[in-house]
Amino acid sequence: MTLNEGRTPTPVDQIAEGWVDTMVSLDPTVGTYIGRSADGSGFADYSPDGHAAYVRAATDTIRLLDDTVPVDDVDRVTHADLRSTLALDLESSDAGLQLRDLNVIASPAQGIREVFDLMPTDTVEDWRNISARLGAVPAAITGYIETLRLGIDQGITPARRQVREVLGQARRNAANDGFFNHFVAEAGLENGSLPASLATDLGAGAHAAATAYERLATFLADELAPRATEQDAVGRELYALRSRHFLGATIDLDETYEWGIAELARMTEEQESVARQIKPGATVLEAIAFLDTDPARKLHGTDALQRWMQETSDRAVAELGATQFDIPEEIRRLECMIAPTQEGGIYYTGPTDDFSRPGRMWWSVPAGVTEFDTWRELTTVYHEGIPGHHLQIGQAVYNRASLNTWRRQLAGTSGHAEGWALYAERLMEQLGYLDDPADRLGMLDGQRMRAARVVLDIGVHLGKKVPDGSQTWTADYAFDFLARNVNMNEGFVKFEVNRYLGWPGQAPSYKVGQRIWEQLRDDAQVREGTAFSIKEFHRRALDLGGVGLDTLESALQN
């Protein structure tokens, strides 16, 4: 890949482009994510040999970077961020994290299936690629099992709780009515018909993929679960490593824990104040109960949900593009989708490098859920779309003239992305889009949850005292704590806490990232005085593309 006309690629750019090529070669699903269709029919080698190949490649790229001098500010950001990312990957490898890479939301157990959500399905050739990738699922699962077996041999295993939950996911994928069989059953609906031989191959591929997930389930039940650790907490050393990975910054974990407690109290007080605006004298729960009976704020069915998401997103793009941000035409298209899974959660996937696949907001609706409250979810549309993830990620993809592919498509951290999205929610409040107290209550419900999980995540993994000092954090306390701080059903609470327990350091990155974004804005305002422009601050920050938060701070201060 090469840059568009504009900035002449430098040696540092070429190293970064070479690293993207290497990543796509080592893991073709990366090619699917960024839209390289020619690379879209296989998987990474998830075996120990595959991991060793990644380590060698990362080591070689660090060596190249160390031998190359940046020529300008763009180079300096690329050099610093790429090197720190690769060095952290090697540090994680030394800690054996790949040997315990299994959790309920973001491990190969999910990634192998989820890539199919991003594959085009418009042409016969698209379905041939899907058929080839379905046929590659068994080898990917085999390699993954080999790595987890090595973890068993070395005594490095995930928590038993995670194994049990992923076992259930694997069995659902393996079922006759699971994802793979359902996916190919609809293959002919989008393009009329497929050649009989391809339809047969798709059916065989779906069966092979489902059988591979059944094999994974058997391994998890019979081999890994008995050897998995009962301890959910990973401890301070591994937690600090994971926190750096998700933030691209080093934070004081103890200070952040205390800040999280204070922030949770502040969010709770603000939420209680808004509840009284909705219904005089009401508690938060009473205000929520009142809103839940309002038919004007309720959607029925996923079709209505999808239409409302799209209409809300389109309106935000049109209005903010006219007043607050310079939004390129390519970014103005955002597709709001109902996900093909029923696991719960809302997420965003970025556009391909040529925008042939637009940015997409996905809603994975749990089975049986048919009603949705707009007051709860308005802020979510802003979080995932404009001015949240879609503006942030789409702007980086658009900025081909100055950013190499690594910076546009693959760099960045959860703290940078999710921190910006929470920052964007508050920005929409400041711009008047959440003036309705009900919509503001929905925003605060999410902000309170994000503050609560800073406390929960750090507390449980570091074995700290709970906020009232009555005991040390445990998983059981974590479920109760979150249930008291979110207005969600038991299934949501269970999924969320299991996610935090299995993905340490990720959940706090949202609120901590927001904190850092707000600090950087406030620092810039103090530094620039009357010359400060919030629109210019946003433009400059987003033009950097995805970076770690330490890199972001350094770049904005120069």
Describe the structure.
The protein has 23 helices and five strands. The chain is mainly alpha-helical and 558 residues long. It folds into two domains: 11-232, no CATH class; 244-509, no CATH class. Helix 5 packs antiparallel against helix 6, helix 11 (253-278) crosses helix 12 and helix 11 (253-278) packs antiparallel against helix 18. Helices cover 64% and strands 4% of the residues.
Short summary:
The chain is built from 23 helices and five strands. The protein is mainly alpha-helical and 558 residues long. The strands form two sheets. It has a three-stranded mixed β-sheet.
Listing every helix as H and every strand as E from the N terminus to the C terminus, the arrangement reads HHHHHHHHHHHHEHEEEEHHHHHHHHHH
Q: Hey, roughly how much beta strand do the residues contain?
A: under 5%
Global structural class: mainly alpha
Rg from alpha-carbon coordinates:
23 Å
Helix content: 55-70%
Q: Which spans of ≥5 residues are poorly predicted at pLDDT below 50?
A: none
The structural domain count equals 2
Q: How many distinct helices?
A: 23
- First-residue to last-residue Cα separation: 29 Å
| Total DSSP E strands | 5
Instruction: Report the major sheet.
Output: 3 strands, mixed
pLDDT average, as an integer? 92
Shape: globular
Instruction: Output the strand order for the largest sheet.
Output: 2-4-3
Which oligomerization state do the chains in this entry correspond to? single chain
List its salient traits.
558 residues; mainly alpha; two-stranded antiparallel ribbon; 23 helices; 64% helix
